[in-house]
């Protein structure tokens, strides 16, 4: 990570709200695309070793993105994002909920609010995640943990073959 | 049902109870007095806090004293740190992607 770029992560536990601010060394147009186009989202939208796979995405108000986080052993965890408001290049809001592979949503979900602004070629993205319940977040993390555990297991096996 | 810890600390009265017992373990009666609440109302709050293990009861003679479970709060903080780490990993991936795209467009 470029250490000159800001990364803030704050949680207001009482308000059940997560605040994330991150700067990127790219134009606002490019960063906006990276957050709103499926082919780009799938290239970074899951922490390695997990990967993201979008089944379809209609980026318009009332439209949806139906996607999965896939762990190294092929386990899929599906989720639906519903876009509730879009102001091109500067803001979009969505409602995120876990789902099964047939797109049946598990409610409640959480509300996400993304803001984009650019200054001197650096784009600042401010994300507010509201009402994400602890258990939902836990579930999200569980998925990541599965991915990491798998990777460590693969590494162990590799080390065994190398030693 | 397992209590949601966010839900437990979203209530101002429960936060006040936690703040108080972090300093000193209290009986339900003592809480009711301090907050000018009925025993019944206090019991409800205690149940929520107890269900998500933020407080632990200890019997002392005929009284029950509730203690603050700092370990649970630390677990919660640790868990949030992991969540932050996931975001950091993703954003670093995005940095690389943005660099790649910029390189492609300037060629």
Automatic annotation (TrEMBL), chain A:
Residues 26-159 form the Activator of Hsp90 ATPase homologue 1/2-like C-terminal domain. Pfam families: AHSA1. InterPro entries: ASHA1/2-like_C, START-like_dom_sf. It comes from the Bacteria. Belongs to the AHA1 family. This is Uncharacterized protein YndB with AHSA1/START domain.
From TrEMBL, chain B:
One of its GO terms (molecular function) is DNA-binding transcription factor activity. SUPFAM superfamilies: Winged helix' DNA-binding domain (SSF46785). This is ArsR family transcriptional regulator. Residues 1-88 form the HTH arsR-type domain. It comes from the Bacteria. Gene3D superfamilies: Winged helix-like DNA-binding domain superfamily/Winged helix DNA-binding domain. InterPro entries: ArsR-like_HTH, HTH_ArsR_DNA-bd_dom, WH-like_DNA-bd_sf, WH_DNA-bd_sf. It holds the Pfam family HTH_20. The lineage of its organism: Bacteria, Pseudomonadati, Bacteroidota, Sphingobacteriia, Sphingobacteriales.
